[in-house]
Design a protein that fits this description.
WH_DNA-bd_sf, WH-like_DNA-bd_sf, 7 helices, MarR family winged helix-turn-helix transcriptional regulator, 3-stranded antiparallel β-sheet, 3 strands, mainly alpha, Arc Repressor Mutant, subunit A, HTH_MarR-typ, about 170 residues
């Protein structure tokens, strides 16, 4: 029995008709997300990054060459405010990890571009982040992880509210 089983079991004694499988699912997802987040957050300071800075670097790196996106695209992709993104970009720019340049597709706009140093740090941070996540599930058999990912993919495909524009899973 784990903490979620105990919590759900207690509630089922008190209000047996209220909690269903979705309650157990959300508790487990939230606890896993917290464990993954905590593991990654413990590693990022060694790279001199906050979670928000890592998110911006990763979003730019996964954009592909030339590793650039418009600030409003970053705002939507990362669910941060425009002011929040601007502050993060300013910090990254001051460290030489990104640069702003005119958007060739829109003369009035700009885009944020990873510098070579930013590309290297983004890739190193991604490796560290992935390794931190792997430690959380190190004792879980690969077949179990695959089955869990497949099950969550099926839930995601049909759950309401997950596919709104501008939201990321």
């Amino acid at each position: 029995m784990d903490p979620v089983d105990e919590l759900i079991g207690t509630w089922r004694l008190e209000l047996p008709s209220v909690l269903g499988p979705e309650s157990e699912l959300i508790k487990r997802v939230l606890l896993l997300a917290q464990a993954f987040g905590d593991a990654a957050a413990a590693e990022l300071p060694e790279l001199g990054l906050t979670s928000a800075e890592y998110d911006v670097l990763a979003a730019l790196r996964r954009a592909g060459t030339p590793y650039a996106r418009r600030p409003n695209e970053l705002t939507k992709a990362l669910m941060l405010s425009s002011g929040g993104i601007s502050n993060v970009i300013n910090r990254l720019e001051a460290r030489g990890l990104v640069e702003r340049q005119a958007d060739p597709a829109d003369g009035r706009g700009s885009r944020v571009l990873l510098t070579p140093v930013g590309v290297e740090l983004a890739e190193r941070a991604l490796k560290v982040n992935t390794a931190a996540h792997a430690t959380v599930v190190a004792d879980v058999p690969q077949e179990t992880l695959t089955a869990a990912a497949d099950a969550l993919r099926a839930v995601f495909a049909t759950a309401k509210g997950l596919r709104r524009p501008g939201r990321r899973p």
